[in-house]
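Pasting as-is:
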Amino acid sequence: MKVWPSYYVYILILCILWGCASRVAPDGGPRDKTAPEVVSTIPSQQTLNIKPKKVEFEFNEFIQLKDGGSGILISPPLRNQPQALLQGKSLILKFDEELDDSTTYTITVSSSVADLTEGNLLEPYSLVFSTGNILDSLSCYGIVKDAFTGKALKDALVLIYTSNEDSLPKTTLPRYFAKTNEAGEYFIRNMKQDEYTAFAIKDANSNYLYDQPGESIGFPDMSIKIDSQNVPIPTINLSVETPKKQRLIKNSFSAPFTIELKYALTPDSIVLRGFDGEEINYNKSKESASDSLILHLERITRDSIKLYAYNSIGTSVQIDTLEYKTKSTLMAGSKSRRKQTADTSLKVTTNIDKGKLLPSSNFEINTSFPSILSDTLLTYWRIENDTTEAVIKVGKDPYTFSAEPPLAQGRAIEFIAFPGAFKDIYGNISDTLRVDFRRMDMEETGNIELLFENKGEESKGLILEILDSKKKIVYKNILQRSDSLFISELNPGSYSLRIIDDKNLNGAWDPVNYDTKEQAELVYYYSEEISVRAGWDISVEWIIRKNKKLKLKE
């Protein structure tokens, strides 16, 4: 008989014990898709005259606490978030502060709770009780939208206060609050009769305060009187405020001699000077945004440059010190491409879209850097077997050139630019460019006639924009006194219309200003997209009245 060594026996015993102690989910059977349910609470619903040190939610199954309990909402909010504990099938919230007198509290648990096995999230459940002898029963509701797009905002925080101090959302916790759903809607229950001030914010740090840069805010024009159930609150439109102070957020240098400066506010002007005081010439790229400038400097031979950037806003001037190592930047760029030939050619594009040019448009050439027409004998038109010289004209900036295509009714036109036709300020030349297109007939385009009813003086400050299916602005104009507007030569397709109510007549949309309590300028969207068809005139009636606001796009 063979005798096993004692250590084999020990290992066998340990394996058996481990198998008995391990708990695994049973195999097979349908997947659990049912969310956990609350079966009881302590205190019970709508209890009066109670100041609990803790509350307890008992569920019908074992649960897990997700996101650290940040989805547990208490209204009115407490100064300190309660401690959340799991015990068996129960969730216990322990308070470390005394609750206020004669106050109705609502504690909502939802996305923080899920079942243990499949992670099914709890449907929102609210426990309501009062520390006094009355349970407040009034309510209000409303919707929160993005001020510019008019789209409903999910997870915006609506804050309701009982006083009317200027610093309320910045320093004071609200009396009541609610989060918006996917449709931007909210409903606040168990409110006391009173007059309130309302705000809505996108709360970046979940502290129920408007205290972070980049948080958006909005508010109704008036106080809210709650004296019944289901009181409607006017739509609140949210936007991020324009920064109060100018500052340089980011700056970078890239080859060839390109500086990118991102500011908090759009500068009125920028002057670059070297440390010796000499002004540095530059061109501003067409890719620059209002607050993010891309500047192409004149060719610099020094290994490094030190600059002062003078940016002016109104009567104030801010000076920023910039320092770049130009040689190391250029070497780094070439090092990353050492295994392949560096592409030093000048990038050139045109305004041809899908091989077509609108009837009244000129052929346009755009370069990636400030450029000149290096050789006038290197650009041609070709129609079938006929070749003629293309006369290129310099555009409104050193990035743009244009040419008038030859008449060729219904025939294909080819534009040819041989290598070296264009040269940028750094000495890079363009490669061969061939573009096939044809000029469209008027019958291939469509027109929109806009009819405004009772527009009158209201046209002052109204900016009309027409956007294509890619949300690119294809037409922009300030509305005049006339009651109609005709926009011609539009490519067939879907378009949307919007009007910016430019109150301060600065030619741009302005967001909310919390300090002055100025609302974001309204943006009105036509109620549906306009389908433009070839050879058709589309008439659109749009009512603009002083006492009847246009309907914001749902």
